[in-house]
Amino acid sequence: MNPRLSLLIAGLLLTATKASAQSLGDGATRPPAEPPQAPEALPIIKTPTVRTFVQAEYPAGASAQGIEATVRLAIALDKTGAVTDVRIDRPAGHGFDEAAIAAIKQMHFEPAENADGPIGVAISFDYKFTLSAEVKATGPLPVNLDGHIRRMGDRTTMAAVNVKLQINGIHFETSTDKEGRFQFRGLPSGMAFSTVEAPGHKTERQSFRIKDGKVTTANLWLRPDTQFEADEMMIIEAERPEPDITRRTLTAKEIQRIPGTFGDPVRVIQNLPGTARAPFGTGLVVVRGSNPEDTAFYVDGIRVPLIYHLGGLVSIINEDLVGSVDYLPGGFGVEYGRATGGVINIRTNQDYPENFRIEVSADILDASAVIKGRVGKNKKWGLTAAGRRSYLDAFITPLAGRNGFNVKPYWWDYQVKLDDLEKSNGKFSILMLGFGDQLYFGSPGDFAQGTDQSTQGDADVHYGAHRIIVQHNHKFDDTITTRLSPSLGYDTVGFGLGDAFSFNQWSWIMEFRGDVLWTPTPWFTLRPGLDVLGGPYRVDITLPFDPEAMTTFDPIEEREPFVTSFDGTFWSIDPFLEAWLKPIDGSDTLTLIPGIRFNTLVLPYYNISSIDPRFSVRYSPWENTTFKAGSGIYHQPPQGADLGFNETDIRVDFERSWASEIGVEHRVSDAIEGDITFFYKRLDDLIVENEDLQTSADPFFVNGGQGRVRGMELMVRHNPVGRFFGWLSYTLSSAERYKVPLQSQRRTLPSEADEWRPFEYDQTHIFVALGGYDLPKDWGVSSRFRYVTGNPHTPYDGGIYDIDTGGYFPYQTGDALNERLPPFYALDLRVDKRYTFKHWWLETYVDLLNIIHGENPEAEEYNYDYTESTYVQGLPFIPSIGFRAEYSF
Amino acid sequence: MIRLSLFSLLISCNGDGLSQEWQLDRMRILAVRATVDGATDPILGTLAEARPGDTLTFTSLTYAPDDDPIGGLLWMACLPEGPSASGCDLDPVLPTPDDDAPEDDSIIGFEPMFPPKWDIPLTALDGLPDSERAEGIAGLVNIIALPLAITESLPSPGQEPNPDAEEELDPADLAVAFKRTPISEAETPNHNPDIVDFVVSGTQIDGATGFSAQRGHIYIIEPLLADGHIETYAYTQNDGTKVFRSEEPYFSWYTEKGGTEEDGDAFFDQAFSLHPHTSVEWTAPKSPGLLTLHVVVRDRRGGMGWATLTVNVL
Q: Is residue B43 part of a domain?
């Protein structure tokens, strides 16, 4: 080996100034390309030149590989021309950087000068390593080490990974190509010690024996450094759509390690500000003082009837398909409607591995499987198929105790998604999903379920939905983008109790969501859109009595069975228009978003309409601080039973909410950020039972209720930077209702008629603190503490005996909901461990819920005559274990 | 697994520690029977459904612990003021022993001084369309049981009433109940059902005789109604057609010395039994002694009856 060195001074930059001359020691930290511009600087009249050149040693490994390189360096010179500091600006690896620095530090320069004389400067130049002609003439040496690097667990090939080798004290270095392959040429024989380093992975060290005339093969595996690093899922708390979204991004690592959420990204929402604690850990979503049914659920922008399976334990979408979850607690844009509470939109991901992989998980409740990969010519399509089926019903019946009782809860869901991975100017995907839930209670024929003959028999609740969702986004040019999403679905809901009660509804759901983003100038975007929901439906109802003919409950009154069926087609065709105004140079410094939405509901004998104006503003006077405010009207159409039982005589209108909020977001550093939001919501025209019902001619439901909600939400978060993540979430709020019957009573007592009362789920203080830390050897620990004010409840003072039924009516001497249950507090702890193998990985965890044994009453239960009561306790201390495994082909 | 634990908890909220409905341990009104004076059918029994102008008398089944006996029963009655009315205005002026009859028109009795008796107004069905007179209306009767400690504090004959007496009444010290009494011009008016016998684990037992039970043993007890006391009656539907229906009575069970299964005391497997599955399982207490079981039958049309069974636990 006889390499030749050449040195090129690429340029002389950075004029010395009074200030820069004093800071030459750290001058190398300034960008060398920064032009001279200090106003008091004198022009350089002589550039520095090399006085003493030192030849760098050509790295032996690189020479053997036939590699040439150029290293760009930044060099600080003092006024004598001595080198005071050197920094690599553009590294070349393979030992070139170290060799260049060693040589530069020994070199000396003629100093630069200005009118005052020699000055210190910082210069940038390239140190070029070229092989000698004779080395080039021999041609590249033969490959004698051929290797491949993949990640353990999912077998992903690792591109652009640096591989270092040392043989007999000589260093060699190379990088993997896009397929994860690397080669070394002309290695001397002997033991080779490799070192492979890649961000997010543990350093891999291996040894090989290199033999003359033979090619050694090396298949190396990198072990992920931290758990669950690969997938990024997000919870986005959004108060406005793009581009002014208020975004909270939670990584998969955070989501899966929060105790008590079962790794379900949708359940994590319950740890964010603005969401009330769900009783018994169920999935009720109570957002900013609205009823659970007032929050709308979407998958890829298409509405689905619910988001959780039975009991709120599992969401209807397999977590492997979830790319992000938009959580909009209020103040959402005009593209969303028909909801006065919040909006939760699950966005499916487009993350497909190179190799097919299958993930299987099973526990005592259900089993699920996901297969994911790429198919078609050039692997053009990404394919995901997932399914889940519970088997809880197989063994819960024996737990019910008495012979003859039969409890069968079960659920299933499926998802199939096809994504065009080659569409460069937009997106095209087809998603099929469906789910079904059933809860069946069977009882012995001689068992009395109360005293009413019509309530005897087996009970059955079932519901399900299917959707085919097509998404087509197309960017025509920089000014026009269209986003179209048609969908077809089928929903069923059924309920039965013995022979007397049955309710069955079938409906085809046709939905279309589309908008156009027209951005003629950077400061103006117009967004017209259309949100259509509708389709044919059929409803069959059987009741033991005519609900609208009964003006009061009379157990000795003769009843006539009520059987009715009706069908028709409903349509809700809602156009919306929104503008994004960025008046300050088209930047995000100030964004104004006015919008308007037109709501409709058309049934065969009934139609209503309303208009929702909404406006929001975001102002970012400083880089890390944003002030935000918004106000808008939200209308929600009558739902289900609100419409009554006579389709030709519906007399209810939209429910209405006027929601306003103001707040500020501030990012302290990459790791720490926080925001605070104050909100006020006024609810009007809430649909309630008609308390003045006198005859069958009177409407059964009326828009007679009101509500008001006010509060503050605070969140301080440490992003998963480094080994720690966590956040503090605090909500202070008050939610009240006026002339709305208590859910437990279905009627407003006269004493409550003119009083505001607390909302059933009103929780004054909701505090959540959680954090997780990555421990060595793929261990992780996380914890969550929660403190929540107890829900309001009505204490009863006794009961009045109804001799004709044998039951008691409770009476109260105080106002409704005038007491609260004791506060809820719980500390949860979770420990994770991941085992990574070449083709598969296994995750295990131990979840310890409520380790401080908080009693946490969820309700007050009374005896038969309401003279004794006890608390229905919440979840006690619960230890649990879970497993998950994934195999890559 | 955690999810199973959640489910287990949700299905196990059964109010452990709260007293059971069938457990007699406090002052209670268990049943009230209305009977039309002088209108007893030899097969169907006593008439329970009155016509305007009829006189109704009332009997009651009550329970009170030995150390807290009932001192009096106050009876009030009224006609419903509207379709949604659910009770009488409970603001009575209590009669005194000096009164020949209660001054308050709504009071129809104050036992033991004034046995309850209600003369149904002739105008009770006025204003009701002819088509609805067969079904009629439900008169409302309120009953309040006062413990002896309260009735003893009432003024004696010749004594001035205590103006603060109302404030001394704590609802928690009382037992308050109400009953609907059908008033109609029905073609087949309702009669009260009567329980005549029991079948205990396959053996027919005379209620008055009772039976002996082994401690801790389980007995299947079935009440027997008098022949003809599950009535067939005519009902005119909303569309004007007349149909015949049969009664579907149900039974409510009560016992002294009741307790929870964990306590080892007597208990029923359920508080109710419905026609045609009228039997219940009763577990005898683990300590010997005499006790009584009560069963109340309701025919869902306002008719009511009851019987008592004495058990000697050996």
A: no
**Does any CB of chain B come closer than 8 Å to the CB of residue A882?**
yes
| B279–A556 C-beta distance less than 8 A | no
> What residues of A are in contact with residue B171 (Cβ under 8 Å)?
797-798, 811, 813
Alpha carbon distance A231, A153 (integer Å) = 13
Q: Are residues B173 and B286 in the same domain?
A: no
> What is the interface pTM, i.e. ipTM, of the complex?
0.91
Give yes or no for A281 touching B (CB within 8 A): yes
A267-325 pLDDT, tens digit each: 788 888 888 888 776 777 888 988 888 999 999 999 999 888 887 778 888 888 888 78
Q: Is residue B40 part of a domain?
A: no
Does a structural domain hold residue B155? Answer: yes
According to DSSP H, which parts of A77-205 are helical?
A: 96-104, 133-137
In a domain, B260, yes or no: yes
CA A23 to chain centroid, in Å, comes to: 47
B163 and B214 together in one domain: no
Contacts of A279 in chain B (CB under 8 A): none
Which of residues A767 and A231 earns the better pLDDT score?
A767
- pLDDT per residue as tens digits for the range B3-35: 333 333 333 344 567 888 888 888 999 999 999
From the list B16, B135, B178, the residue facing A803 with the nearest CB is B178
Contact B83 A695 (CB under 8 A): yes
**Interface contact A802-B135, CB threshold 8 A:** no
Distance CA A860, CA A808 (A): 17
CATH number of the domain where residue B241 is located: 2.60.40
Verify that B88 and B171 share a domain, yes or no.
yes
Q: pLDDT digits over B72-117, tens only?
A: 999 999 888 765 555 666 666 666 666 666 666 778 998 888 899 9
Give the gap in angstroms from C-alpha B160 to the nearest C-alpha of chain A. Answer: 30
Query: Which of A396, A558, A847 is the closest to B2 by Cβ?
Result: A847
Q: Which residue of B has its CA nearest to A874?
A: B9
The residue among B183, B208, B238 that closes a domain is B183
Q: Is A878 on the interface with B (CB under 8 A)?
A: yes
Residue B112, preceding bond cis, omega within 30 degrees? yes
Query: How high does pLDDT run on average in chain A?
Result: 82
Q: What is the DSSP letter of B47?
A: B
* Nearest-by-Cβ selection for A311 from B7, B135, B177: B7
Residue B203 CA to residue A692 CA, distance in Å, equals 54
Q: Is A832 on the interface with B (CB under 8 A)?
A: no
Beta-carbon separation of B302 and A549 below 8 A: no
End-of-domain residue from the set B160, B183, B206:
B183
Neighbours of A133 (CB within 10 A): 9
| Shortest CA gap B184–chain A (Å) | 12
Q: Please check whether residues B156 and B201 belong to one and the same domain.
A: no
Closest alpha carbon within chain A to B85 = A552
Residue A817, pLDDT > 80, answer yes
> Is A693 within 8 Å of B16 when comparing Cβ atoms?
no
A573 and A551 in contact (C-beta within 8 Å)?
A: no
At A742, is the secondary structure helix, strand, or coil?
A: coil
DSSP-based three-state secondary structure for B116: coil
Q: What's the CA gap between A485 and A470, in Å, rounded?
A: 5
| Per-residue pLDDT at A573 exceeds 60 | yes
Domain match, B86 and B158 both: yes
pLDDT at A748 over 50: no
Look over chain B and give the mean of its residue pLDDT values, rounded to a whole number.
82
Same domain, B130 and B205: no
How many domains in chain B?
2
For residues B256 and B158, state if they share a domain.
no
B147-156 exposure pattern, b = at least 16 Cβ within 10 A, e = fewer:
beebbeebee
Q: Which residues of A touch B10 (CB under 8 A)?
A: 280, 311
Q: B81 lies in which domain range?
A: 50-183
Domains of chain A by start residue, with CATH = 4-135 (3.30.2420.10), 141-222 (2.60.40.10), 235-348 (2.170.130), 357-888 (2.40.170.20)
Residues from chain A contacting residue B26 (CB–CB below 8 Å): 867
- Claim to verify: residue B118 and residue B220 sit in the same structural domain: no
The DSSP output letter for A284 is -
